[in-house]
Design goal:
By secondary structure, the chain is mostly helical. It has one domain. The chain has 5 helices and no strands. The longest helix is centred in the middle third of the chain and has 40 residues. The protein starts with a helix and ends in an 8-residue tail after the last helix.
């Protein structure tokens, strides 16, 4: 599985090189496909960066929710109370917890950087 994931990542990273290679071919169809790949590659990278960020918040939130019994029970109670959207509730609850945790970390780091004196290099 790991080899497959890393292989897919490598293929995505080299996608623009494939597009450039196809654009240089004499075959008209290959050139059109190559141009389409080169045009689509930045959009794909942006989409993957957003999807990856969302996934990290979901995973992080899930780890926190499952690690803290009170949050786990709160998520279960919320799912039971909502009803029809109950299947999506744990996912959304994990996302909210992940966003809150991320915002807290950013706030703490920002605060520490604002009050902690920076050392100067050389001198």
């Amino acid at each position: 599985m790991t080899a497959g994931v890393y292989g897919l990542v490598a293929a995505i990273v080299k996608l623009d090189d494939l597009g450039l290679h196809l654009q240089e071919r004499d075959n008209g169809i290959a050139r059109v496909i190559g141009r389409a790949i080169v045009t689509a590659a930045p959009w794909l990278m942006k989409l993957l960066s957003v999807a990856g960020t969302v996934a990290m918040f979901l995973v992080g939130g899930g780890i926190i929710v499952h690690g803290l019994t009170v949050l786990h029970h709160a998520g279960d109670a919320l799912s039971a109370r909502i009803g029809t959207l109950g299947d999506l509730t744990p996912l959304l609850f994990d996302a909210v917890v992940g966003l809150a945790a991320g915002a807290t970390v950013v706030g703490v780091v920002t605060f520490i950087k604002s009050v902690w004196p920076r050392r100067r290099q050389g001198g």
